[in-house]
Amino acid sequence: MEDFAFEEENAVMRHHHRKRLASVKLSFLTRTYLQHRFWPTWPFNERGIMTFVLGGTSLVAGQTTTAELQGFDQNGSPIAIPAGSTYAYSTDNSAVAAVTLNADGITATVTADAAGTANITGTVTTPDGKTFSDTQAVTVTPVVPVPVLSSVKLAFGS
């Protein structure tokens, strides 16, 4: 009888320690520049590395970025979002930043349209009906016009 109780207790403990999706965080695709290790005087890799960074982002009007939800377990460790989950993205200020679900059905394109701040919300619903969401701010700055030389005036004198 004691062996059965011990096995049942172990099964319950294994169930409680199983990793499960507990939250999601919205991330945005960002270009990161790294210093080249062989040429320390060359400041950056000009192409950079594209990575998803958790939290809000800043864009210049006219730019786009990709938004993606990242899953986390009950301990705050990254975990895959279950296959078959459905994703949705929205904005609270479409005049500043528009958001469109991409063809992959998982990520979204965020387009910066005008200066201001928009809150982007990403929501995922798992196959078993659980819903998780996160909201992050996208700050859009205006395009700064570059002065263009439009004419030259020459003065001849003695």
Rg of Cα set: 25 Å
Kindly state the number of beta strands: 10
Largest sheet: 6 strands, antiparallel
Strand/helix succession: HEEEEEEEEEE
Number of self-contained structural domains: 1
How far apart are the first and last residues' alpha carbons, in Å?
Answer: 116 Å
What is the count of DSSP helices, taking H or I runs of 4+ residues?
Answer: 1
| CATH fold-type name | Immunoglobulin-like
CATH class: Mainly Beta
Q: Indicate the CATH architecture.
A: Sandwich
Overall geometry comes to elongated
Helix proportion of residues, in percent? 10-25%
Q: Report the uncertain regions.
A: 39-45
Alpha-beta content class: mainly beta
Strand content: 35-45%
Average pLDDT value?
84
Task: Characterise this structure.
This protein is mainly β. It has a single domain, classed as Immunoglobulin-like, CATH 2.60.40.1080. The protein is 10% helix and 45% strand. The protein is elongated. About 4% of the residues have low confidence.
In short:
This protein has 158 residues and is mainly beta. The protein has one helix at residues 2-17; strands at 21-32, 49-54, 57-60, 64-73, 78-79, 86-91, 97-101, 108-112, 116-125, 131-141.
What are its keywords?
six-stranded antiparallel β-sheet, 158 residues, mainly beta, 10% helix
Secondary structure blueprint with pairings:
Layout: H1 2-17, E1 21-32, E2 49-54, E3 57-60, E4 64-73, E5 78-79, E6 86-91, E7 97-101, E8 108-112, E9 116-125, E10 131-141
Parallel strand pairs: 3-10
Antiparallel strand pairs: 1-2, 1-4, 4-5, 4-8, 6-9, 7-8, 9-10
